[in-house]
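Hey, I was hoping to borrow your eyes for a little while. I've been puzzling over a protein and I'd love to understand its fold better. The fold is given in discrete form, as structure tokens running alongside the sequence. I'd be grateful if you could look everything over and explain what you see. No rush at all, and the record is pasted right below.
>
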Amino acid sequence: MKQIKILGSGCAKCKRLAEYAELAAKELGQPYELAKITDITQIMGFSVMSTPALVIDGQVKSVGKSLSVAEIKVLLA
């Protein structure tokens, strides 16, 4: 099961990234668990200084931009 985390304040870009990450995982048919992290202390624990950020299985994969569904699929595969 993929552990997907979206790090951010809950802004429009963060919400879009979460939506796209969920869609990408569903399209790949992968079981996943999605968590949205908005606490600044937890976000800083990932050494992320810009949001939104995408974390997959504990590794930061993207920082400061909202990826497309296709881009997220590549990261999940």
